[in-house]
# Entry
Amino acid sequence: MKTMPAVLVVEDEPSIAELIAVNLRHNGFRPTWAMDSLSAQRELDASLPDLILLDWMLPGESGLSLAKRWRAHDRTKDVPIIMLTARGDEADRVAGLDAGADDYIAKPFSTKELLARVRAVLRRRLPEPKGEAIVIAGLSLDSSTHRVSFKDQALRLGPTEFKLLHYLMGHAERVHSRGQLLDKVWGDHVYIEERTVDVHVKRLREALGAAGAMVETVRGAGYRITAKPLVAIDTTDKAGAA
Ligand code: CA
# Structure
């Protein structure tokens, strides 16, 4: 469906919300505005947007807490979230990404930057054209159904972790630098720091559970996925290595 993407703007400051909405509208998006967590939840219950722009500091429940909650719910877990916030330091940025945000914009931001990031996040989330399963040492990823499993046990991955795993599995055993991963997985990395890759690799390993050891850090070089990790995989039977 190539309709105008719907963007839910959760922002308690009307002037900022208005600025964002006007710019989104002029650039082919359909913005909806919610000024607090309750109305945001109401909007989500009514219909799922293609993306959420979520202010961190909101009256009542914070944006960070909302992001965590939406990530934990089946219905909302795949909707990309970009956090908006006046907080600019590293710890806050990582907390936002750890809460499940796909990206992070510090206020004050230019509308050009905002639009670039919105487009980049939406582009990342486009479905992959080909749809066959890749299997490596019992870890299976099916890009047509977006399912990942390890030894037939379904695993839950966020959209960015899925894309990252998809890329790594499609190029198994090879080492990829953070810069290469940003290029291939994030696509438009103008505004994304290399540290973002580390955050998502950490989340990917956690999501993979017992298979997490397959995602190896190659010191000074980057990351790779391997069928024969240095740290043993917790496996009792020998699932066929691809
Ligand atoms: Ca605010």
About this structure: The pocket of calcium ion is lined by residues 12-13, 55, 57-58 (CB under 6 Å). The chain has two domains: 6-124, 134-225.
